[in-house]
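Chain particulars:
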Amino acid sequence: MGRTAVVFAAWFALLFALEWVFISSVSPAELVLAAGAATLGASGAAAVDHLERPHAGPAGRLAAALAAWPGTLLADTWRLTRLTVAGLATGRRPRGSFHEVTLRPGAGAAWAATLISATPGGCVVAAHEEDEKGADATVMTVHQLFPELSAVDRALTTPRERNRT
């Protein structure tokens, strides 16, 4: 029995029991109505549960990315602090740039985007699948505050084109 069927059955039982508690007189017509309403509600709940389960992707590069993340967080925070102080002193606003990168094989799009975005230096703003040289690849658009790639970026991605915007 698949997960969706289990979720459907659990929601059906809950909604049917709830309806049964709230009806004043238990008659065959009321039970049919309760079963119909529970079926509709359980179908919706099972569909939402199925859609809400994201696919994290392969975890082949996860260990390297997790090992690089604390150092990247500290380095980016220090660079951001220096950039902020310099901006306050000169009145110049720092600007980042958008870059397209391709995920390396073994990197899942969901957790890779989370790790890249969990540092002050980068934020994934878009991702899409692309057929690259006969193999499917995930291409991400990343807004980077600093011109050089971080250790997390180097562990997870390869640059496609620099300074797109």
Remarks:
- The chain is about 55% helix and 20% strand.
- Helices lie at 3-22, 28-51, 62-90, 109-117, 151-156.
- The longest helix spans residues 62-90.
